[in-house]
Design brief:
Length: 411
Amino acid sequence: MKKKLIALAVFLIAVTLYLMFYHHKQTFTVVPAQADVVILLDVKKIKRQYISSLLSHPSEWFGSKNKSKKTVSIEESGVKIPDFLQIFHLRNSGFSDWYSIFEIKDKQKLITFLKQEKFTDRGNNVFRKDQIFVKIERDNFILGTSDRDFKSIDCRLLPSSKINILDADELITHGIGSILIQSEKGSQNLSVTVNDDDIEIKNNIYFNPPTSLISKLLNTKSFFEAELNAQNINNLDFIFNRKSLDSSKINHLKAVADLEQVSDTMVTYGYDDDFNEVEKKTIQKIIQPNYIIGLQSSDSPKTEEYFRNKKWINVQNQFTAIPFQPNIIQKTSGGFEIKSTRKKMQAAQKLNENYVIIRNNKLMVSSLKTLNSRERKILLTLDYLFYTNRDQDYYLQLKFKKDKLPLILRW
């Protein structure tokens, strides 16, 4: 009898663990048809990786001593957490506009949670805190970094012709998630893997990062460095909605940049007690990049014509498509060179690779005024961002600084 009870207990524990960490109630997820990028995260896989990491770090078993007992987690906020979390971007919307949709279990709990987290009520069931926007629409909770597309993205209210139904279980074949990129040229499915000190995103799970190239780039002191061929330059059309860079005839880009804090004098005018105009000078510290960008073209006259049609070259011969002034654009053998004029920069060596590397810099973090203290702290732990492409293989790495805890337990 005792053996049967033990066997039953083991069976019930096994079933419970399976339901908690493996079983998906629903693998299909709905997104608007105009979504061009969809991020899918397997919540069950994330839980399994978290528990596995937690078991191997006993110091974290009892949680943080500094954590407030009054803190209410998102699971207790009246929102239903799906097995597959979706985050999407809409075609032709802003680069930083991202959204997600959740089902509401308890609307009153959700409103209480939003008030507790200091969201302000903007009317029409829209709430805001910093750069996070929320809309309550019937039984759905729409979360976004903008409210510009709230009226058009509630999938449960859209006709079937305006939605896509995705099988998340089929898309997530490796790692904890997947990024589906859809364009007129086709689609790419990238895997998302969280390791101890980095996050890897790639479309070929067998593609390993070029460690020798990364080591070579890390030996330089540049904040930003990039080298891209025509294929990767044209990919910028999709990312930044330019849609016409392919007609610019640019087939190679090489860029390097550093950051520097400089003093800027701002002049304002007021009046003294006798109503005489008085000039006031205020000195403020600002962050400015020093950079040099080399562009190779298959047809330089056509490229120059393209720039002038776009009004990217002004009468001072400045390249205005770059918001950081002053700079100057000059013709070179087979192309153009754009460089900041405040401080001379040395052009980077051509490596005949496709890559972008952005190294963490305290000046950059301090210039991001919209970040709260927690976001700023997380960003400071980032070491560098690295992207490379070889043929049809794409790879992106977010490398974080070494820590005693694996990445999934740090925040």
